[in-house]
């Protein structure tokens, strides 16, 4: 997997570049991982509903073809776009999402933080009262169990996921909150959930640089996406 650190990258041109890369890649082209930081931007997924947009203000909204609802990108957030050929890798979308979430969980563990999955709500969450607690959530996904109605009481969302697959190849990806202005999340229902609190590493007392967090997340994604 070839890794490209793009630095500060406007959202829309990056989105178009992902689409073009995916449309023209061949089985011989290596997978790539793009790591960047976007200026303030709201993005809406295919399932997005207008009632989840409360007050956009001066922040632009971009309609995309990823799954999911509305989210926010901004400075202080590490955005990772894995461009993976699933047919060649040998696993399906569900496994791909699991591996991406696992990369975030391992990144948080690097900082001594325990990340959690919530059944029916893709992304990674932390306990607000004790982000270091290893106690499992009762509402974690469990094999063979139907998804639950998420209860976000006491939880904060640390990372959001959005995926698109075309010609067996993935684009879009994951956004990890490091040290952001979180106020814009109050202008939307994040990922379609009213009242869902969004947090970053600095909120829970973890102080690191964007560059360091980006490096750790990139390393974890490369390891998890090995065939």
Tags for this model:
single chain; 227 residues; alpha+beta; BirA Bifunctional Protein, domain 2; 7-stranded mixed β-sheet; 4 helices; 10 strands; globular
Q: Could you characterize what this model shows?
A:
The strands form 2 sheets. The chain has a 7-stranded mixed beta sheet with strand order 1-2-6-10-9-8-7, sandwiched between helices. A 3-stranded mixed beta sheet has the order 4-3-5, with no helix packed on it. Helix 3 packs across helix 4. It has one domain: Bira Bifunctional Protein, Domain 2 (BirA Bifunctional Protein, domain 2). The model has no long low-confidence stretch (mean pLDDT 93). Helices cover 22% and strands 27% of the residues. The protein has 227 residues and is an alpha+beta fold. The longest helix is centred in the middle third of the chain and has 18 residues. The chain has 4 helices and 10 strands.
Quick one: overall form?
globular
Mean pLDDT: 93
For CATH, the homologous superfamily is named as Bira Bifunctional Protein, Domain 2
Spans of at least 5 consecutive residues with low confidence = none
CATH class equals Alpha Beta
Number of domains: 1
Q: Order of strands across the biggest sheet?
A: 1-2-6-10-9-8-7
Tally the helices. 4
Percent range for helical residues?
Answer: 10-25%
Task: Please state the second-level CATH architecture.
Answer: 2-Layer Sandwich
Rg, nearest Å: 16 Å
Report on the biggest sheet.
7 strands, mixed
Order of helices and strands: EHEEEEEHHEEEEH
Question: How far is the N terminus from the C terminus?
Answer: 11 Å
User: How much of the sequence is in beta strands?
Assistant: 25-35%
CATH level-3 fold name: BirA Bifunctional Protein, domain 2
Q: Please identify the structural class as seen in this structure.
A: alpha+beta
The count of DSSP E runs of length 2 or more, i.e. the number of strands, is: 10
């Amino acid at each position: 997997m070839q890794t490209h650190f793009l630095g500060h990258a406007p959202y829309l041109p990056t989105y178009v570049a992902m689409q073009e890369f995916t449309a023209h890649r061949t089985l011989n082209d290596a997978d790539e991982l793009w790591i960047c930081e976007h200026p303030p931007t709201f993005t809406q997924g295919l399932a997005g509903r207008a009632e989840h947009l409360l007050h956009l203000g001066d922040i632009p909204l971009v309609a995309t073809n990823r799954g999911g609802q509305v989210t926010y990108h901004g400075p202080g957030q590490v955005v990772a776009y894995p461009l993976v050929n699933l047919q060649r890798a040998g696993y399906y979308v569900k496994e791909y999402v699991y591996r991406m979430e696992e990369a975030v969980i391992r990144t948080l563990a690097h900082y001594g933080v325990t990340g959690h999955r919530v059944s029916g709500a893709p992304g990674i969450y932390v306990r607000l009262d004790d982000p270091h607690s290893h106690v499992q959530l009762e509402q974690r996904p469990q094999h063979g169990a139907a998804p639950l109605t998420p209860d976000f009481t006491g939880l904060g969302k640390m990372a959001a996921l959005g995926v698109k697959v075309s010609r067996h190849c993935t684009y879009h990806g994951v956004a990890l909150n490091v040290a952001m202005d979180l106020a814009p999340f109050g202008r939307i229902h994040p990922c379609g959930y009213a009242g869902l609190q969004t947090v970053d590493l600095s909120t829970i007392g973890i102080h690191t640089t964007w560059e360091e967090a980006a490096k750790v997340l990139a390393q974890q994604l490369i390891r998890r996406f090995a065939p």
